[in-house]
Amino acid sequence: KRNSRFFAMLNGDDNVENETGTVRQLLAKLCKASLRATFPDDLELEPLVAICTGKFGDYQFNNAMGIWSKIKGQPGPFNKPFSVGEAIRKTLPPSDMIESTSVAGPGFVNVVLSKPWIAKRIHAMLLNGIGTWAPVLSVRRAVVDFSSPNIAKEMHVGHLRSTIIGDSLARMLEFSNVEVLRRNHVGDWGTQFGMLIEYLFEEFPNWDDAGEQAIGDLQLFYKASKKKFDEDNTFKERAQQAVVQLQGGSPNYRRAWQQICEISRREFDQVYQRLGVHLEEMGESFYSPYIPGVLHELDNKGLIQESDGARVIFLDGYNIPLIVVKSDGGFNYASTDLAALWYRINEEKAEWIIYLTDVGQSQHFEMFFSAAKRAGWLPQDGGYPKTTHIGFGLVLGSDGKRFRTRSSEVVRLADLLDEAKAQSKKQLIERGREDEWTPEELEEAAEAVGYGAVKYADLKNNRLTNYTFSFNQMLDVRGNTAVYLLYAHARICSIIRKSGKDVEELKMTGSIQLDHVNECILGIHLIQFPEIVEDAITNLLPNTLCEYLYNLSEIFTKFYSTCRVVGSEEETSRLLLCEATAVVMRQCFYLLGIKPLYKL
Ligand code: ARG
């Protein structure tokens, strides 16, 4: 259905509301038509469309130079790249999206978009919703494996990064109509459970009745049991036995395990709830029944070998093998991940499986992906199903070292979020909001700003770089921060409110005209939103969207400072532009997991 609408436009249907596809895709269609017309024998030519770098157009077609280097010296009508560009330009099918075209230097075809076309496209979005601007991806179902903390151990800032980036990518995929399985691959099946359960049995004989109160603070409990494990050899042996009992399904051990998991789960859920992140827990334990069968399959395919008592897979390009059964016969992180991948491909039928952890785990992922290729689960040539590991850098403290508390403990995420909220609340009170708002409004704003600040500070960086965590920086009202952006959005809302006009009615009765140069710049930036999301999600880089959002707010400011809105002759058109900007900003916020505020 999408496609038929998409082609309708090529057949001269000028109904803008029915054009789907990004501006770049629509232009690519036109460019392709002219490549086929100009070079009918070369069916491999694919259109190269980019946002214009110079000031002579909005977009450019970049095919001429490449074509020239292929045909140079051959007889024909072309004597230089420029003439190739000229030929492409001349054969472009007529389209109401284009105002004018020109050819520059080495054959770049510059395209100036038609202002009425841009205006209509924006207006259509306002009428039909931002959903009509969703990019179209070739994937239908994806797994995003993110957050994934370990039970009974701390959920640290690394998991926070995974949670924030993973949620944003999942949102972008969902917006692009991909079905996303949001998987929390919690570490709930490691050998640490033997130690924890044994400690529980020995130190809290009444654990079953006392319930979770017996354990109290799980992190202290973990530390105490670890201490005993390291110091007491007989305890260590009993703990190892306990793992066997647990994995063998012994009811008592199972119940104790569940109780421990439940405490962690509640702590994790509090963080997710505050961050507004939805996840479905499918921890390591879920896949454990699948491990033997999966290893059996790999063994049958001749992948598994014996090495120093362990069972391993040797892979080209690595000097260490991937261990899938430890020398004590136990399974490990890799065997679980192989089983999980098998499950995701065969049972869940996911086409794209995305994992988020710090870059430190890259090798683990590369190795088991490569084993999966050898097993024939993934195509060798990189088609679907496809796996991607998204690594990210460290969060640093002001001392340039790993982010820790003063007593060099791991920072608890709940404390971190409390602090973010407290600081943003203080800021709001300093700006006099306590007197203007109800206490509920103040709370809501403090949370939106505080948590938004933490998320944006993370997402705006290229995920591979380390970044320094600083409340001061992330709450700077004038920087490239969530606070600045939330203010910008609230200001637009207030412009519309103060106009006294009913935007819904303006949408129905009014129209948009782009005359002033800053209106045109704003208009073009707005209609580029779909392709920015497409880029962000194909390259798995949310910072692309942050950059777009920041630029949008700057471009809006320029427009607003040069084009009077309320009381001007162009009031209706300009109010609609304000509304479109606010809608696109809100969608950016949504995709970044930030809650927008209508007044601030
Ligand atoms: N639990 C792991 C950790 O905290 C992350 C798990 C990532 N997902 C996976 N399928 N290996 O480092």
TrEMBL record:
It is an enzyme of class 6 (ligase). Its EC number is 6.1.1.19. GO terms for cellular component: cytoplasm. One of its GO terms (molecular function) is arginine-tRNA ligase activity. Pfam families: Arg_tRNA_synt_N, DALR_1, tRNA-synt_1d. It catalyses: tRNA(Arg) + L-arginine + ATP = L-arginyl-tRNA(Arg) + AMP + diphosphate. Transmembrane segments: none annotated. HAMAP family: Arg_tRNA_synth. Forms part of a macromolecular complex that catalyzes the attachment of specific amino acids to cognate tRNAs during protein synthesis. Belongs to the class-I aminoacyl-tRNA synthetase family. This is arginine--tRNA ligase. It comes from Amborella trichopoda. The lineage of its organism: Eukaryota, Viridiplantae, Streptophyta, Embryophyta, Tracheophyta.
